[in-house]
Amino acid sequence: MDIATFLGSLIGFVLVLGAILIGGDISLFVNVPGLMIVMGGTFAAICVTFPIRDVVDAHKIALSMFMKKKGKVDDVVNVMVRIAEISRREGLLALENIQTDNPILKKACQLIADSADGQIIRDTLMIEISTMKRKHNIFIEVFQKLAGYAPAFGMIGTLIGLVQMLAKMDDPSTLGPAMAVAILTTFYGTIMANLVFLPFAGKMRARTSQEELHLQIIFEGAKSILENNNPRLVYEKLSSFIPPKERKSAR
């Protein structure tokens, strides 16, 4: 589990909820019609903007951020060094039997086993990087649009509430409660945008940059193994991707 994502989300909601409880009754902040307008309107708008598959996949990726820990650069470097050790000890063909859950790493091992030209490996992995970035950019845009739609529908809910309030101007005692209910929809939209959608978009952007770096390490490692499968030389080259202060934790 990614502790930073979990704790950040939890702390944000707890602090907001705590402030509400300190200030009064939490039931004052519950308005079902307002939630229907904000959540229903936001969902409808995002489904019009993007194919439903992209919307579902974006939310699956967001959920996975809670379940998967952030990968480390030195872990990828160490994997490539171990692959170099296998290739030197057992030969390049032995890399065909490498078992990994990473399809890009598996493809790189297959290309090395086939003694593919360095340019072919580069072109293949650059296409993989481009495809990954394009897919992730769509998911990032989904959450950025959600962050724009939620406050907008919150304002729409507020306008609806104001119209209903003004229609009852003959009874001054209802104006205060009606105004509070009208403003709640803006509150819902703002909370959803700034505590959920924008943070997820930012986290996804950071994960995209991280995955791109990992793919670059795999490419450089594959290229180095083909050129000279000395594990020590492979490590010395790939260790340049690791910040100096963190290199001591690597191989």
Major β-sheet, in short?
none
The ordered H/E elements are: HHHHHHHH
Count of DSSP E strands?
0
Structural class by SSE content: mainly alpha
What is the arithmetic mean of pLDDT?
85
Helix content: over 70%
Distance between the termini: 24 Å
Apparent shape: elongated
Oligomer: single chain
Residue windows where pLDDT falls under 50 for at least 5 positions: none
How many domains, as an integer?
Answer: 1
Enumerate how many helices there are, as a single number: 8
Quote the beta fraction.
under 5%
Gyration radius over CA: 26 Å
Give a verbal description of the structure:
The chain is mainly alpha-helical. It has one domain. The chain is 77% helix and 0% strand. The protein contains 8 helices and no strands. Helix 3 packs across helix 6 and helix 4 packs parallel to helix 7. The longest helix is centred in the last third of the chain and has 53 residues. It is elongated, with a radius of gyration of 26 Å.
Question: Secondary-structure map with pairings?
Answer:
Layout: H1 3-23, H2 32-49, H3 52-67, H4 73-90, H5 103-113, H6 118-166, H7 175-227, H8 231-238
Could you name the key traits of this structure?
251 residues; mainly alpha; elongated; MotA-like; membrane; Chemotaxis protein MotA; transmembrane helix
Briefly say what this structure is.
The protein is mostly helical and 251 residues long. It contains eight helices and no strands. The protein has one domain.
